[in-house]
Amino acid sequence: MNYKGNHWSARKVDHIYIVSLDNRSNIAEALTDFIQNQNIQAGEVTGIGAVSEATLRFFNPATKKYVDKTFKEQMEVTNISGNISEIEGKPTLHLHITLGREDYTALAGHLLEAEIQGAAEFIIYPLDTRVVKIKNEEIGINLYDFEK
């Protein structure tokens, strides 16, 4: 079965989705629209593609603060991996990305947002469960809470 949404198209095969995002769309926004549209509350995400801009986030455990940095250049997405869980009642993506630069060096980190320039292709593996993350104040990040 085929589906179409806001900046994405998809095909469902058994219980797995093959997802393509539109050129010049934002990866995090388009995938969030997809998981909300398909009511996916838990799962795994993998993907590849190319972007012209990406904002990565790094968590500093000493300060419990995030540091964001934007890179504006054409880069290959050699890997996006992550998960889908529920935070504050909403399905939420947690994505990490590895980006290949023109000089064959790599950037990596938590993906905040990225603009596609070329293609973005994903496989999404929904899980038939609900997984909730709650902020752990001691550590400063959201962690799974299997009691919820």
Structural descriptors:
9 strands; mainly beta; 148 residues; flat
Write the layout of secondary structure elements.
Blueprint: E1 2-5, E2 8-13, E3 16-21, H1 27-37, E4 43-60, E5 65-87, E6 90-100, E7 106-126, E8 132-136, E9 141-144
Parallel strand pairs: 5-8
Antiparallel strand pairs: 1-2, 2-3, 3-7, 4-5, 4-7, 5-6, 6-7, 8-9
Mean pLDDT reading: 96
Please state the CA-atom Rg, rounded to the nearest Å: 16 Å
Q: Helical stretch count?
A: 1
- Major sheet, described briefly? 9 strands, mixed
| Helical content band | under 10%
Order of helices and strands: EEEHEEEEEE
Strand content: over 45%
Overall structural class, as computed from helix and strand content, comes to mainly beta
How far is the first residue's CA from the last residue's CA?
33 Å
The oligomeric state is single chain
The general outline is: flat
Q: How many strand elements?
A: 9
